[in-house]
Design a protein that fits this description.
Strand content: 15-25%
Number of helices: 12
Oligomer: single chain
Structural class: alpha+beta
Strand order of the largest sheet: 1-11-12-13-16-10-9-4
Distance between the termini: 51 Å
Low-confidence stretches: none
Mean pLDDT: 95
Order of helices and strands: HHHHEHEHEHEEHEEHEEEHEEEHEEEHEE
Shape: elongated
Radius of gyration: 28 Å
Length: 427
């Protein structure tokens, strides 16, 4: 959430940002309410001063025993009336602040200065590529054809019990997904210094709000109505919220966490997209990276997270590219995002496999997450997150990039130790 003082003092910049991010939202109500709120606060302060002065005079009169009970009685009556008026105005103020907070909760984060302005993904900027997309000596089939034909993936039976957007994985392909999770976690813990965390899959409304999922993305979340709780759309939600209402000593930063979890999303805004295969599912596995940083080093930390995620694909030897997202393609909470896009033969192009973002103090302000400086002052943390990687999409990338003419799959060299040296998965 943006600071109300920042919005007030940079109203034109915030309104321009909303246009750049394609938000059909004006701040006219905010400006009106904010002016009324500040005027009402001044009135309440004056009433409190008058009430306090009356109380002081009553005390003096009682101490002196002079001027008779009538003057004291008049002052006490006036003081009670002042208290009633303060109570009424405070109730009105609470209503204004609730409405202001609701408006603030719907304003996205301010983009970093180097984020390109653009309407949608067409405005994204490619930063670099890794690996070579090789000319193939045979036409590779999409995973939704050959993996189903080999009885490795079963969409039909999953649809029977859960509806569309789910799948069964079988035998060595199920094992391959499990191996990918172990491989990613091992890499991030042993080589990149992240601490492994096992997270809850169900969180409360406060947690979803603190991490910026509510109110903007409630439609896309799975709500457990009986308990007013949510299935997590990503482990980021549980990892970032670990330190809600906490103060971390500066010497302990950055704190880097990695977690595997299933993720649950309705994909409410994605109707008709990627309907074939398992690229876009309602339940999918992901390894998530989260970091807590001091503000001065958070953009360096973002680069660290991106490179940590990139190394997964480098070790798997799968071509990818890194893209800087423009204003019209960024998530609600973020100030800057890099997408890592992997080469998928079935699409004949690069597709997203990871998003790595710096939310700066946006989530920290909502969740009251702070750190104590070496001088003893408390400041808001910066929070960062990145997919390290989306496991199902990594599985797709292996199935398609390592596909052989006979329909078998060559196991990437770095994963063979998890398969007891096995080199090929056959139907």
């Amino acid at each position: 959430m943006l600071d109300i003082k920042y919005v007030r003092e940079h109203i034109d910049e915030v309104e321009q940002m909303l246009k750049n991010r394609n938000y059909n939202m004006t701040l006219s109500e905010f400006k009106e309410l904010d002016a009324q709120r500040r005027h009402l606060i001044s009135e309440i302060d004056l009433l409190r001063q008058k009430r306090n002065e009356n109380s002081r005079r009553i005390g003096l009169l009682k101490a002196r025993g002079s001027n008779g009970p009538s003057e004291i009685g008049e002052l006490m009556t006036e003081t009670r009336e002042l208290s009633s008026e303060i109570k009424a105005q405070k109730k009105e103020l609470d209503g204004m602040e609730e409405r202001l907070n609701d408006i603030l909760s719907r304003i996205p984060n301010m983009p970093a200065s180097d984020v390109p302005i653009g309407p949608n993904e067409t405005g994204n900027v490619e930063i670099r590529r890794w690996g070579t997309v090789k000319a193939e000596d045979f036409k590779k089939k999409p995973h939704w054809d050959f993996a189903v034909a080999n009885d490795w993936i079963d969409f039909t039976r999953a649809s029977k019990i859960s509806g569309t957007g789910f799948e069964y994985l079988k035998r060595d392909i199920a094992r391959l997904e499990r191996v990918l999770i172990d491989f990613m976690i091992d890499l991030h813990v042993k080589e990149h210094g992240f601490t492994e965390i096992r997270v809850p899959h169900i969180v409360n409304r406060k947690t979803m709000f603190a991490t910026g999922q509510l109110p903007k993305m409630e439609e896309d979340a799975y709500l457990l109505e009986r308990d007013d709780q949510f299935l997590i759309p990503t482990a980021e939600i549980a990892l970032v919220s670990m330190h809600m209402d906490e103060i971390i000593p500066e010497k302990e930063l950055p704190r880097r966490y990695v977690a595997y979890s299933p993720c649950y999303r309705r994909e409410a805004g994605s109707y008709g997209k990627d309907v074939r295969g398992m690229f876009r599912q309602h339940q999918f596995d992901k390894v998530e990276l989260v970091s807590f940083s001091v503000p001065e080093r958070s953009y360096d930390e973002l680069e660290y997270i991106v490179h940590s995620a990139e190394e997964v694909l480098q070790l798997l030897e799968i071509p990818y590219r890194v893209v800087l997202l423009c204003t019209g393609d960024m998530g609600f909470t973020v100030a800057k995002t890099y997408d890592i896009e992997v080469w998928l033969p079935s699409y004949g192009r690069y597709r997203e496999i990871s998003s790595c973002s710096n939310d700066i103090d946006f989530q920290a302000r909502r969740g009251h997450m702070r750190y104590r400086t070496t001088e003893g002052k408390t400041r808001l943390l910066h929070t960062l997150n990145g997919s390290g990687l989306a496991v199902g999409r990594t599985l797709i990338a292996i199935l398609e990039n390592y596909q052989n003419p006979d329909g078998s799959i060559t196991i990437p060299k770095v994963l063979r130790k998890y398969f007891d040296g096995k080199e090929v998965i056959r139907s």
